């Protein structure tokens, strides 16, 4: 995809920093794309919210936060609640591209990531949101054998330049304030990958497989 072609892109993520960890390099590499980031959790966490706002400035994106429960117990949320939050926060229901979590998540295991990805697929399939292309994060950790890595077999796989990766890493360590020995800093992927869908039916099949797996 030509980085010079303007596109409207919505990133729908669970937490502040998810947009940078899993798609920050893509955002920084496409300055002509218009990004809007929906973050479903942590609006009332004033420190994280303030850092998310600063990250938006660095990424040259617009965004908004919600306040879904994100307690340490990770109690599953009602799917309707997650979908309604997305609909309430999105400024438009049509984007050229939507990017979100994989319904399996990016590592073992964060329920909010899984719920977000599943809700986005369902909203697209039922016509509540519209896009020409859905991309979902394609990362894995092989049962915690290593930090999450981009899947080289994904539909879209790109190795970040050192300059782009360094900018991404700086957002994680300086803007968000994670220490260099933190999980977030050590994870910061040097490559980014996405499963790409132009059909909501194909994405729905992936979601069905996820439900069969749980």
Q: In what range is the share of β-strand residues?
A: 15-25%
Biggest β-sheet strands, sense, barrel: 7 strands, mixed
CATH fold title? Rossmann fold
What kind of assembly state do the chains in view correspond to? single chain
Q: What do these coordinates show?
A:
The chain is α/β, with parallel strands linked by helices and 214 residues long. The protein has one domain: 3-Layer(aba) Sandwich (Rossmann fold). It is 39% helix and 24% strand. It contains seven helices and nine strands, in the order βαβαβαβαββββααβα. The strands form two sheets. It has a seven-stranded mixed sheet with strand order 3-2-1-4-5-9-8, sandwiched between helices. It has a two-stranded antiparallel ribbon with strand order 6-7. The longest helix is centred in the middle third of the chain and has 15 residues, at 111-125. The protein is globular, with a radius of gyration of 16 Å. The chain starts with 7 loop residues before the first strand and ends with a helix. The mean pLDDT is 93.
Characteristic key phrases:
seven-stranded mixed beta sheet, alpha/beta, 214 residues, two-stranded antiparallel sheet, single chain, 7 helices, Rossmann fold, 24% strand
Entry summary:
With 214 residues, this protein is of the alpha/beta class.
């Amino acid at each position: 995809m030509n980085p010079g072609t303007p596109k409207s892109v919505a990133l729908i993520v669970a937490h502040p920093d998810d947009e940078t960890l899993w798609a920050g390099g893509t955002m920084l590499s496409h300055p002509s794309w218009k990004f809007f980031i929906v973050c479903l959790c942590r609006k009332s966490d004033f420190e994280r919210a303030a850092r998310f706002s600063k990250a938006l400035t660095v990424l040259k994106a617009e965004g908004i936060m919600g306040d879904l429960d994100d307690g340490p117990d990770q109690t599953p949320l009602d799917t309707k609640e997650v979908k309604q939050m997305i609909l309430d926060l999105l400024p438009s229901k049509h984007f050229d591209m939507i990017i979100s979590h994989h319904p399996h998540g990016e590592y073992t295991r964060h329920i909010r990531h899984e719920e977000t990805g599943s809700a986005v697929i369902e909203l697209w399939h039922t016509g509540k949101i519209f896009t020409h292309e859905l991309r979902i994060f394609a990362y894995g950790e092989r049962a915690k054998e290593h930090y999450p890595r981009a899947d080289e077999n994904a539909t879209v796989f790109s190795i970040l330049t050192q300059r782009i990766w360094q900018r991404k890493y700086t957002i994680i360590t300086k803007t968000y304030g994670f220490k260099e020995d933190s999980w977030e800093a050590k994870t910061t992927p040097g490559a980014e990958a996405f499963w790409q869908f132009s059909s909501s039916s194909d994405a729905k099949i992936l979601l069905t497989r996820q439900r069969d797996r749980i």
